[in-house]
């Protein structure tokens, strides 16, 4: 049955001025397990649905975490929810991050803005399975320091893996890096030819990062992007999420750069 | 026991007998009929409502009914509507949601009970269009249940095409004018000195059962030969062609062609082509509430890829220019549809040519892109 299943908000964490993280637990039977990179259609009664990537799971194993930035009517309604409120959820939809591709090698995660959210469950899984990889590194960019997600968690992660953070516009008191994320690609350790990269952020940031990584020797087939287009159904039927030959709800959102590069190079495709 | 009759010949009175046999089975019989100066699709309360003696004259941007000198019922090319009107309706309620006093959410899937349809007079191109929508809407891992409920068990009476229009190109797309399976009954219409009659074949057990109830006589070699000749002649009278190349490759390799500027200067981005196309399936959603705000409904309605909202995200609209929106429609239809669903999305019915208010012709655009690509290749070859 492809109608929203009721979930209850059991946790709400404010991340930035316009972004919150909601923790949801099923009211009835849980949906099938979500994998990092996949997304849900989340229904804010009575306003509508939006696609949201998984930003984490819960210790119960049945819960879902979604980080939502209030940019439209539905996301604003979701961001305004409080523990006890109910939402509807459909999913899981789409392709997951290909973690197996990184087995034995280095993982490099590059996030822009709220794009850190879909990478978080991948990062946590990689940190939990350190013997599967050589190393894990995280590069994070945001518009301003106030736009950085999961700041406390970032500090914890930094104790377990190299983490580099930059902002476009510093604020008083900011002592960190200033500039786009591509300026940090040499600040964290990884062996390019042995690296699998996972990118999520604005399209222009992902394009620049992917190009720079391939230039450094990371294989294009092992640079993964999480792409975004309008989505209405999640099930491959509404036709809205097309990117050339791809239906991003089905063939994405995670797409390898060797497939995405030519498509993203065509203006207004 | 004898083999059930698989083929026969019947007179025009057989059409009403056929309609009644389908109605007796509880079916809603839909077929072509003349209304508002066009041949449209409607529920038939009598076979006499079929467009006997009517033909159509079509050209890019032009559609006119015209009287024929004979009594043929199916000697007309595609009208403004297609069977998606019934199988993939313009508006469908998908679910209702209620919020209880304690804040709990109850969502109920809408399970409507559509009529058991029988379509009388499906052209082979439109039969292929139904097969295309089958692949899109119920051929993948997720099924569109509203479509499935309408499509499952729909009874399809195909009428082979003997009178193609000036905008037809089913031969280029490999979808007609003959039928190649997927039907319950196939008819071929003949009107000559021996009279007005139909060669009837059963394509399924359900079709054979219905055929057994019709006022038929054994198929005679002359009628069969005349019917086959008429379909063969039709294949040689296509008004349009597609360039004889792999259209999927052509679309993939011409995304930056100059020709897109040319067609974009003419295209009004009105979306008529998507409305009349028998395979265009794109939809959007609408969430509505009652006055209390505690009851909500999710509706799905046809959408148009020419609409700016179609690709609107919080970062802006992806396909802003008319060029990019016409290009999306055409490249999807005859190119990337293959990647997404394993076949072309075009069946060569010509509707998009006829109903375009500025007479843009999908075949002309494909030929122009092919010419530009060939010229470019030739130049490249000359320079090397």
UniProtKB/TrEMBL annotation, chain A:
Its cofactor is [2Fe-2S] cluster. [2Fe-2S] cluster binds at residues 233, 238, 241, 249. Pfam families: DHODB_Fe-S_bind (PF10418), NAD_binding_1 (PF00175). It comes from Wenjunlia vitaminophila. Gene3D superfamilies: Nucleotide-binding domain of ferredoxin-NADP reductase (FNR) module (3.40.50.80), Translation factors (2.40.30.10). GO terms for molecular function: 2 iron, 2 sulfur cluster binding; flavin adenine dinucleotide binding; metal ion binding; oxidoreductase activity. This is Oxidoreductase. One of its GO terms (biological process) is pyrimidine nucleotide biosynthetic process. The keyword Thylakoid does not apply. Binds 1 [2Fe-2S] cluster per subunit. It comes from the Bacteria. Residues 2-99 form the FAD-binding FR-type domain. InterPro entries: Cyt_c3_hydrogenase_gsu (IPR012165), Dihydroorotate_DH_Fe-S-bd (IPR019480), FAD-bd_FR_type (IPR017927), Flavoprot_Pyr_Nucl_cyt_Rdtase (IPR001709), FNR_nucleotide-bd (IPR039261), OxRdtase_FAD/NAD-bd (IPR001433), PyrK_electron_transfer (IPR050353), Riboflavin_synthase-like_b-brl (IPR017938). Keywords: 2Fe-2S, Iron, Iron-sulfur, Metal-binding.
From TrEMBL, chain B:
Keywords: Iron, Iron-sulfur, Metal-binding. InterPro entries: 4Fe4S_Fe-S-bd, 4Fe4S_Fe_S_CS. Residues 256-288, 337-365 form the 4Fe-4S ferredoxin-type domain. GO terms for molecular function: iron-sulfur cluster binding; metal ion binding. It holds the Pfam family Fer4_22. The keyword Metal-binding applies. Coiled coil: none annotated. SUPFAM superfamilies: alpha-helical ferredoxin. This is 4Fe-4S ferredoxin. It comes from Wenjunlia vitaminophila (Streptomyces vitaminophilus).
